[in-house]
Amino acid sequence: MQSAIRRLVKEKKAIILAHNYQPPEIQDLADLCGDSLELSIKAAQTDAEIIVFCGVHFMAETASILSPQKTVLLPREDAGCLMADMIDPESLKLKIDQLPPMPVVTYVNSTAAVKALSTICCTSANVIDVVNSLDAPEILMTPDRNLARYAAAHTNKKVHIWDGFCPTHEWLTVEDVEQAKKAYPNAVFIAHPECRPEVVAMADVVASTSGMLRHVRQSSRTEFIIGTEKGLLYPLQKDNPDKRFYPASEKMLCKNMKKIGPEDVVRSLETMSGEVKVPEEIRVPALAAVQRMIDLALKKRAS
Ligand code: 13P
Ligand code: SF4
Predict the structure, then answer these.
(1) Could you tell me the residue range of the domain that residue 121 belongs to?
(2) Which ligand number lies closest to the CA of residue 82?
(3) Whose CA is nearest to atom 4 of ligand 2?
(4) Domains in the chain: how many in total?
(5) Ligand found nearest the CA of 124
(6) Are 101 and 145 found together in one domain?
(7) Is the CB of 126 under 6 A from ligand 1?
């Protein structure tokens, strides 16, 4: 299957991008695995004609926003994001109208139509930089209340918070972390900022998925409790065979991130099925918000 996929990828001038939560067999066949920010940057920069996005719908949409001339395939069209579904453009418009004028910072885990109403996007890797780059005393952050509270703790701005969340991260409780810390007293606890604030407060390190990979690689410590979706344990263990990783809770599983299998990638590439295309009237304003975020990230990388 793997060699058939590689042949198809070459024939069709395609690239396979996979999020760090994807199943092991998908991560192993991808050209690039990464967090949401890395994958967005790659989608913007690649010269491949077809992007096969192994992740969830908003990620494929972001690739289409950035590269309208490319064909973006999501091998399972039903791979959605429960947090992205917690906001819609009509409700966001109402909220914007209720508040005094202020920038809207939207997590990339959102639909293109919501991005189109936003000033700038952010990911878990750059949320603090994005918020602090804005020349405004107040901001509205959507859709993740936990990421917004995390940002609020790292800025002097007043943050208005949309009440969405990621169920996979919300399931992790203080009691779960206490239990894990008791079971593995020498382990470093690393949490994703999508976790509840009281869980984030217990963390030794707070990072995006690729931030976690980088931290572990550079750390001299050997045991880690991982407070994010369990799929991340695969690249962590592969990268660091001598270190030990424990999920903060077995509940931390995102079903949508596990839908794509190698057979879906083959079918999608062979039949060009699962194309995700954002209509121009939404794509253009959404691009402004995504591009602002990417420009900021690239400026930071260069400095
Ligand atoms: P990152 O990989 O950007 O940290 O995103 C986490 C996530 O929940 C993606 O769905
Ligand atoms: Fe959405 Fe959470 Fe799943 Fe990421 S882990 S795709 S934020 S539901």
Answers:
(1) 84-165+284-302
(2) 2
(3) 81
(4) 3
(5) 1
(6) yes
(7) no
Element (H, E) at 14: strand 14-19
Residue 231 CA, ligand 2 centroid: distance in Å? 12
The answer on 89 and 160 residing in a single domain is yes
Instruction: Kindly give, in sequence order, each residue whose CB lies less than 8 Å from that of residue 247, ignoring residues fewer than 6 positions away.
Output: 225, 226, 230, 233
pLDDT along the chain (303 residues), means of 10: 91 96 97 92 92 97 95 97 98 98 98 98 96 97 98 97 98 98 98 98 97 97 98 98 98 98 96 97 98 93 85
Beta carbons within 10 angstroms of residue 88's beta carbon: 14
Name the β-bridge partners of 275.
73
Q: What ligand has the least distance to the C-alpha of 56?
A: 2
Give the contacts of 7 (CB within 8 A, at least 6 positions apart). none
- Are 196 and 227 members of one domain? yes
Residues in Cβ contact with 27 at an 8 Å cutoff, skipping those fewer than 6 apart: 18, 20, 33, 234, 235
Q: State both tokens at 158.
A: 């007043």
The pTM of this model reads 0.95
303 CA distance to ligand 2 centroid (A)? Answer: 31
Question: Based on the domain organization, do 133 and 183 belong to the same domain?
Answer: no
Distance 11 CA to ligand 1 centre (A): 30
Distance CA 154, CA 131 (A): 9
Q: What is the pLDDT of residue 37?
A: 86
